[in-house]
Amino acid sequence: MKKIAFISGATAGIGEATAKLLAQNDFDIIITGRREPRLVELKKEIEKITDARVQILCFDVRSKEEVFNAISSLPNDFKNIDILINNAGLASGLGAIQNGDIDDWEKMIDTNIKGLLYLTRALTPQMIARKSGHIVNIGSIAGKEVYPNGNVYCATKHAVDALTKGMRIDMLPHGIKVSQVAPGLVETEFSVVRFHGDKQKADDVYKGLTPLYAEDIADAVLYVISRPSHVCVNDMIVTPTAQANATNVIKI
Ligand code: NDP
Ligand code: 8X3
Question: Which residues belong to the active site?
């Protein structure tokens, strides 16, 4: 029987690439996000090229009611989730704290921290009951270091870093692995979202370097979840070769 992977934020970027790669590597998948048409398209595309079973759940991770209702609506043959990939997240805005937009702050805190917590709370009891499971949190280089104007986004990713460590301790007696993959610059819809739809500003972030692509992080996730049962990758920081840390990037 195939393992079941639950991927939050599969309508774009890292989540979408991870869904495709896992489906091609013998996982059944649950794909989630707010944009239902994209989930429907992705399911069709994956079912055309693999024999994976694909289940769609459309909800907003910021709403605990939506999260818990979505999980309890899963059909019986999708209820035993082996792998939770907490990927849904965003940056909204980039600016000094004194000029910060409080709505942007709340969006990031509610999505990146509270959404991850709701999903983890909803899905760990069945993992504990089966004494098996793996949680992979998508953190960031911004969860390891702070960069100018990154303030609240960096804080949310530092929270993901801390939660990953805390969750690993809590899950230890239950035989459940907890890992983090922490990427540097990945060219996805991330910067378009950060700059509220300003495509030009978003493109400038990656201009002059070869960034990571979503597929590179999907590959890292697949590596993390396909280790033997006695091996747990705790943390994996992945940057483009042109990036040494959160602030040192070589552009041509
Ligand atoms: P994208 O914008 O391409 O994808 C973000 C995904 O998150 C979408 O599927 C989106 O789905 C989902 N999402 C956002 N908000 C919500 C919400 N409220 N409810 C449900 N789903 C939501 O960005 P990335 O693929 O780059 O980002 C994925 C993760 O990787 C994020 O956690 C991000 O912080 C992290 N990351 C990204 C880096 C980068 O440089 N790109 C580097 C380091 C980490 P929808 O809008 O349909 O709901
Ligand atoms: C996304 C990477 O450096 O743009 O988490 O914040 S960065």
Answer: 153, 157
Residue 205: what pLDDT? 98
User: For residue 72, how many other CB atoms are within 10 A of its CB?
Assistant: 9
Q: Strand pairing of 27-33 and 54-58? A: parallel
Provide the residue type at 229 as one letter: S
**Residue 141 beta carbon below 6 angstroms from any ligand 2 atom:** yes
Quote the mean pLDDT of the chain: 98
Ligand 1 atom at shortest distance from the alpha carbon of 17: 25
Contact criterion met (CB below 8 Å) for 123 and 132: no
Task: Report d(CA 177, CA 120) in Å as an integer.
Answer: 13
> How far apart are the two ends of the chain, measured CA to CA in Å?
49
Question: Could you read off the pLDDT of 161-214 as tens digits, one per residue?
Answer: 999 999 999 999 999 999 999 999 999 999 999 999 999 999 999 999 999 999
Tell me the domains of the chain and their CATH numbers: 3-238 (3.40.50.720)
Ligand 2 centroid to residue 115 C-alpha, Å: 19
- Ligand 1 atom 36 nearest Cα: 140
Tokens at residue 133, please?
């499971």
Residue pLDDT, tens place only, 207-223:
999 999 999 999 999 99
